[in-house]
Amino acid sequence: MEISNVVLSAPLQQLMEEHVSLRQAMDQFYEITEEIESKSGLVVVQLFGELYERVSAFTINLKAHSKREDVGLFPMMSRRLGDNDRTIEVMEEEHEKAEGHLQDFLSEAEQAGSTIDENTAQWISVYAVQAYATLTQHFAKEEKVLFPLAEKILSVDEKEELEHLFQASENLGKKYMIVQRNKPT
Fold first, then answer.
1. Extended strands (E) in the chain
2. CB within 8 A of 129, min separation 6: which ones?
3. What's the average model confidence in pLDDT over 116-133?
């Protein structure tokens, strides 16, 4: 895939592809927020339940993606860019902002519980909309600027190290899922 006329290496391409699936999930939960905003009555509460499930699942996937960037890509790029460059700092702040909106949504939804009413569901949904807006802009910055920059400034060895880090984190995640699945309840 070419972005800004740059062919991305495997680990950067992986991050790009993760954006595609994350964006699809975001679009799905955003559509639900629009329905919640435009509808009234019991259907709002029902839609909110679906929104909660989608945002919960999305948050897990986003955290895995963000961890690959925060632990792998960002430190490597910071070393290359130097102390005076704020590019990575801004990306990390955007991660925190988006994750904060998602956590606010989940916390408020859990606090409201099964007795949630239409108005509460509508105002809590705003956090999901804020996360959507933040992440839409954030993904665009990464895809148009950050990933091509990483491709340019990281050495072949660093890209290979990044790929190994990603593979290790995926293997660890699979082991965790197996342990959780086999865990007695």
1. 2-3, 6-7
2. 30, 33
3. 97
